[in-house]
Amino acid sequence: MADLVEISDAGDPRLGDYRDLRDVELRKHLEAEHGLFLAEGGKVVRRAVEAGYEARSFLMAPRWLEGLGDVLDRSDGPCYVLPEALIEQVTGFHVHRGALASLRRRPLPPLDEVLDGARSVLVLEDLVDHTNVGAIFRSGAALGFDAVVLAPRCADPLYRRSIKVGMGAVFTTPWTRLPDWYDALPDLARRGFTTVALTLAPDARPIEEAVEGVDRLALVLGSEGHGLSSRWEATAERRAIIPMRAGIDSLNVAAATAVACYAAARR
Description:
The protein has two domains: 4-104, CATH 3.30.1330.30; 111-265, Alpha/beta knot, CATH 3.40.1280. It is 34% helix and 19% strand. The chain has twelve helices and twelve strands. The protein has helices at residues 24-34, 42-50, 69-73, 84-91, 111-115, 130-142, 160-165, 169-172, 184-190, 207-210, 230-235, 253-265, and strands at residues 4-6, 36-40, 55-60, 79-81, 99-104, 120-124, 147-150, 175-177, 194-198, 205-206, 217-221, 238-241. Helix 3 links the parallel strand 3 (55-60) and strand 4 (79-81). Helix 6 (130-142) runs parallel beside helix 12 (253-265). It starts with a strand and ends with a helix.
């Protein structure tokens, strides 16, 4: 059971995991150095604990203690209880969803483990926006994709903003990072996946046609700016496009993923 610890000083060193959450670069450094990640909001905190992640600590206002009482009962870390105004001083923003938790990261599983038994996977190359990564995890989970595989330079799915946007889908969707970028798509093909790249390439076919007849699908998505690298675009077995009205050539990568996942789920 988590111990309730009332704190009245925003400078208390025990609150270090939660301090100045708006500073992205500092957060990345802190989280990587200490092997932690942060969950925000009652639902997300609950899903993280239910998925088996070990809590280092919790931070919440008194009015949220009852609703998360069962979560605190099954956790060992301290729960720091502060007035909401003081929480805002610590974190640098209004915690309108009422609760935060600092949780321990796990070692990333090997690629073979993540792909075992998977029929549909999302493969992300160099997406750097945490919001987009979280939204893609959420769409994949909602539309029946079994796993997510990240290129080495992709944004962290366990960054607070990513978790929040994805509503904790990262806790239940198997995922890992690719050990190699250059031959990633040929390697997936050797493992029995048909790699279908979402791209504006001249030979791209409508997404419904590109995924037709595919058994094990690896849907490949590029970065927010220039899209897929020439290497990944060329080594994908198929190229797909979402047909649109004249004058609009593409969607935000998170929106495009949702459309493509829907089409793939109906194959």
